[in-house]
Amino acid sequence: MTTVRSTTGLTGSRRTAVWAASACVALLALAGWTFALLSHDAHPWNGDYSRPSGFASWLMGSISEPQYYAVAPAGALLLIGGLVGHVAHRMSWRWQGFVQACGSGLWPWAAGSALLSLVLGNVIWGWTLASGGWQPLFVPLVSVAPAIVVLYGPGRRIALSAAVLGAVLTPPASILAVRYICVPLDLPPVVGATTGMWVGAAVAFWICGRLSWMPPAGAWRAQQRAQPGTVSGRLWVPRRALADFSEAQFFGNEWASATLLAGAIVAHVISPSSTSYGSGLFTAVLASQVITALAGVLIWRRRWERYGFYPTFVPVVSVAPATVLAFGGTIQAVLAGALLGALIAPPVAAAISARLPNTVHPFVGNVASMSVCTALIVPALRLFPGFA
After folding, report:
1. Among 368, 377, 290, CA closest to 327
2. Who has the most CB within 10 Å: 131, 192, 273, 302?
3. Is the pTM of this model over 0.90?
4. Which of 51-65, 245-259, 310-324, 339-353 is least confident?
5. For residues 350 and 310, is the Cβ–Cβ distance under 8 A?
């Protein structure tokens, strides 16, 4: 009798390796191109669709804008890190890190839908940049699109629906919130950007519940459910703090965060004016984020142990960097924004998310906490000596 060895698993592994290697080469070429742009002092894109290179660079920079870096190499390297993290998860590598897309493993679907939504959103609303001012056009990337995919599961119809809803709803809501809330009240722009995210998401999830081709929310998890990571080990705290740097993009993985930070730091060394909106405060922003990430994970570690997840990433992309930009990067601004954000923002986010219906992804509570906490903490600090 002849024994036939099944090659299905081997073939699948080879296909994954070939696909990952091809994608990585393409992303490395893209990253090299973005670094080359820095050395030539490329002008930022202003809504001129006849400049495809400027448009592409703007999109890459938008990928790292939630962290206040807004520089193309950081965005390109984040995608490389996300790809490495996904392949490591698929291959069950020991050092795969935290599972991406809220522990669902749906990184290709979530990231693909988010990137498509970012492109569509900038195509539709890019004209708002013609005046030369800043607009929060990055918001589809970190809100509606990936959240819908994680809630409703994989599939082309779901991913496309998520991308379109995110592109159509979130940018105008954020633009209006910045203009009519942040400007009159002298609030950090992140308040308006995140307000647009949760307002747009509320409408998007309401629409999803009425689309005939959308399955019941969360139904896909009945057949596939990721196991929560173990909150233990001497390296868990720094690993979790590092992963929080990319949680806003629904990556939440150490590989993704490490490459994101590497891209931002190298870009800053090459061209200091390219990072953090040319404010010159990149190092202060980064310092505040490191402090708030470590402090948040240390303060709320027991909540991580109890629930398997806790939104300690919230101040990393809101209160801490917003405080630095508001007060010029002083030591007191770095420490106050980092520590107050770590102490207040995560429990507020968790409290809001716990009260949302099952048809709404908890990210809505996270971005609502960003809006509320930043709007309260930054103005309150102006009342104390040393803040102006």
Report:
1. 377
2. 192
3. yes
4. 51-65
5. yes
